[in-house]
Write a structure and sequence with these properties.
The complex is a heterodimer of chains A (about 350) and B (about 325).
Chain A lengths: L1 H26 L3 H4 L18 E6 L2 E6 L2 E4 L8 E7 L4 E7 L4 E7 L4 E3 L15 E6 L5 E6 L12 E6 L7 E2 L10 E6 L5 E8 L5 E8 L7 E2 L7 E6 L5 E6 L6 E9 L2 E2 L3 E7 L2 E5 L5 E7 L6 E7 L10 E2 L13 E3 L2
Antiparallel strand pairs in A: 1-2, 1-25, 2-3, 4-5, 5-6, 6-7, 8-9, 9-10, 10-11, 12-13, 13-14, 14-15, 16-17, 17-18, 18-19, 18-20, 21-22, 22-23, 23-24
Chain B lengths: L1 H31 L17 H5 L21 E8 L14 E8 L4 E7 L4 E3 L5 E3 L2 H19 L5 E6 H10 L3 E5 L3 E7 L10 E6 L2 E5 L1 H9 L8 H19 L7 H8 L3 E3 L3 H13 L5 E5 L5 E6 L2 E6 L1 H11 L4
Parallel strand pairs in B: 1-6, 3-12
Antiparallel strand pairs in B: 1-2, 2-3, 4-5, 6-11, 7-10, 8-9, 13-14
The chains are: A mainly beta (about 350), B alpha+beta (about 325).
Chain lengths: ~350, ~325
């Protein structure tokens, strides 16, 4: 009896040991493989609070951050992934809904009700679908500026250009820029207080590199004025609310980025200041009062993008940026939107 | 005494069983996907392109030294191959859409990558002249390796081949890659061959520019699209090297315990002559390479010249320029 119990105990111990070795090895997996899934923003508690309301996008959902609470805005999933929110007056946002082969711009109000502003789907002809991205409401409060790949048939060439149209009418009304062919085009337009538009313009260099320059146009069809050099390869412009500072992401055609601040005096760029070097900084966005910047960058080796805050970027020596979140997987191509209310 | 030895032996067996079960996907892959043999074709004068005879590596260039394959700590050359192995093709009867010749020096942590354009018109090791991407189609990995060896005059120590889904699954398995997309990559005629019922169908894709975290499908779209790039295949080569470097950044965070998941993810979509152990040893080497120590070469004009030969768009190699460049970084055969 005793011998039988001993054998059973040994068998159990051996099995447990083997199982333990198996689980021990499993626990030695890298954090990359263990932490593939980031958590939902609604389960994240930000490290500190910022005033107002911040909108961000993760996994196709639009989230609203107020205080330390993220809320899923719960926009209709059937429209696609909700990205690139932009403030469009009190209680309203312009947001892109990206479907598999096209994207549209919607006006979203505080209750979550949506109004579709563009209709880019064409089930019969795949190439007649269109992309609309980076919508912003101009200073006049009635015009939407955005990037759009325009009508085209039977060509391999697809490029985005800067377009605008009335919020209450056909959005694809006026083409502002003529992009360089086969580079991807002109993207990320930002309306300026004087009625012009600043954007990221892609072109190809003599050494066959495709680089981006920040360009400004005063009116549709006007010649662009370039504010940065091709060698700096700067894009993702964000202009401060008073128009005096321009935050950009520059890569110099490398696989690392730097966040730069360029003072603007009547539209003329001053000497750039590097705010953050050797980062994967993306999608800067200004606070409503222009006193601080949000941007997206990874916080650890998983590479998932988090929300970072940089106070007083215009100071001679800005303080170190602080990670607002640590466990999210925010869409780095979707700049945050920040309103005072 | 015997009883104690038996108990200890039992623990040893159970521990090894637990480990074996854990590593079983990697063990299966070790037999199926790893350790393939390369059949090198001996160098012959007739197999070498004409221009080879007239061009010697520039005297002023440093001469890289050849280390025996597998020499511990020695430099080695790897040919990285990528194929569109979707439903349009029979198993292993595919072109190589991507060919990257890489020289890795573990001692100096220096890596050189030369992207070989798929349309490069060369003498194939299987005979005749054609685009270099057809070498694999006609003679598998041996033909691809022997073609590169004979035309570029280099010795290839190892190779690694990956299929479309292999790349997607690998990137997903390591939790995605961080890439600075150099420009918007828009394509209205991107192959819809990994989803849907018609592998000849197209779909629209748009990869937005800037720093971002890509999953496997997004990364594949970024490296595979070529229709809306003025540089066509060259632009794609640049993007392929970017994603390869992004994977390198992830490699340093991986360990031996990650191999089963990675092996499972890439099963049937990856082959190499290296053993699983050799690949495991490469992970920390790859991770220790800094971006500043990576030399990236794309054979743009004047190294190549676009031509139409027999109704085919091809790239004619300028061997007078290519060979000195390649032999600057890769030891001659």
């Amino acid at each position: 009896m005793r011998r039988g119990a001993l054998i059973v105990a040994l068998l159990v111990a051996w099995a447990a040991f083997g199982f333990g070795i198996n689980r021990l090895l499993d626990s030695r997996k890298s954090t990359l493989i263990q932490a593939r899934s980031a958590i939902s923003p609604t389960k994240e508690t930000p490290a500190f609070t910022l005033p107002g309301t911040i909108w961000v996008s993760q996994g196709g959902h639009l989230y609203k951050l107020r205080g330390r609470l993220f809320t899923d805005v719960a926009l209709p999933a059937a429209a696609g992934s909700w990205i690139q929110p932009a403030i469009a007056g009190p209680g309203q946002l312009l947001v892109v809904a990206r479907a598999a082969e096209y994207s549209d711009i919607y006006l979203v109000d505080a209750s979550g009700a949506v109004r579709q502003l563009t209709r880019n789907a064409n089930a019969a002809h795949v190439e007649r679908n269109a992309w609309s991205y980076w919508p912003h409401l101009a200073a006049d409060g009635t015009t939407v500026v955005f990037a759009y790949d325009g009508p085209k048939i039977g060509t391999f060439e697809v490029h985005l250009a800067v377009w605008s149209g009335p919020l209450s009418g056909k959005l694809e009304s006026t083409q502002w820029t003529t992009p360089t062919s086969y580079t991807g085009g002109d993207v990320a337009p930002v309306p300026l207080l004087d009625g012009g538009v600043l954007y990221s313009s892609y072109s190809i260099t003599s050494s066959e590199q495709i680089v981006s320059r920040i360009a400004a146009v005063a009116r549709p069809g006007a010649s662009p004025v370039f504010l940065t050099a091709g060698s700096d390869d700067c894009g993702e412009p964000a202009v401060s609310p008073d128009g005096s500072e321009l935050a950009v992401v520059c890569t110099s055609d490398t696989q690392t980025a730097r966040l730069e601040l360029i003072p603007l005096v009547k539209g003329v760029p001053g000497a750039p200041k590097v705010l953050i070097r050797s980062c994967l900084c993306a999608s800067p966005a200004w606070s409503p009062d222009g006193s601080s910047l949000l941007y997206l960058a990874p916080a650890d080796a998983t590479g998932h993008f988090q929300l970072w805050w940089l106070a007083n970027p215009a100071a001679a020596t800005p303080p170190a940026p602080r990670a607002l979140t640590t466990n999210l997987d925010l869409d780095a191509t979707s700049p945050p939107a920040w309103s005072s209310a | 005494m015997l009883a104690i030895a038996g108990i200890v032996f039992g623990f040893g067996v159970s521990g090894m069983t637990g480990a074996a079960l854990y590593f079983s996907p990697a063990i299966a892959a070790a037999f199926q996907d790893f350790g393939h043999t390369i059949h090198h074709k001996p160098a012959t004068a007739t197999a070498t392109p004409k221009a080879h005879a007239t061009v010697a590596p520039a005297a002023a260039l440093p001469t890289p030294t050849a280390a025996p394959a597998g020499a511990p700590g020695g430099s080695f050359t790897v040919l990285l191959l990528g194929s569109d192995n979707d439903a349009k093709f029979a198993t292993n009867v595919v072109l190589t859409q991507s060919m990257i010749l890489a020289r890795i020096d573990p001692a100096t942590r220096h890596v050189t990558m030369v992207s070989i354009p798929r349309d490069l018109n060369v003498q194939l090791s299987t005979g005749g002249t054609d685009k270099i991407d057809k070498a694999y189609l006609y003679g598998g990995v041996d033909a691809a390796i022997n073609t590169v060896e004979q035309d570029f005059g280099v010795h290839i120590d190892h190779y690694a081949w990956i299929g479309l889904l292999g790349l997607v699954h690998l990137i997903d398995e390591v939790g995605g890659v961080d890439v600075v997309a150099s420009n918007p990559v828009l394509d209205d005629f991107y192959p819809k061959d990994l989803s849907g019922s018609d592998p000849y169908d197209f779909q629209r894709v748009a990869v937005l520019p800037g720093p971002q975290h890509m999953d496997g499908i997004e990364a594949l779209q970024y490296v595979r699209s070529r229709h809306d790039d003025l540089r066509s295949d060259f632009g794609r080569s640049v993007r392929q090297q970017q994603v390869l470097l992004a994977l390198r950044a992830k490699a340093k965070l991986l360990g031996i315990a990650d191999l089963p998941d990675i092996a499972s993810a890439m099963s049937g979509q990856f082959t190499t002559d290296m053993s699983l152990g050799q690949v495991g040893l490469l992970l920390p080497i790859a991770g220790n390479v800094s971006l500043t120590d990576v030399q990236q070469v794309v054979l743009l004009p004047p190294y190549t010249d676009a031509q139409v030969i027999g109704n085919q768009d091809v790239l004619a190699p300028n061997w007078d320029l290519i060979l000195p460049l390649v032999h600057k970084y890769f030891p001659a055969r």
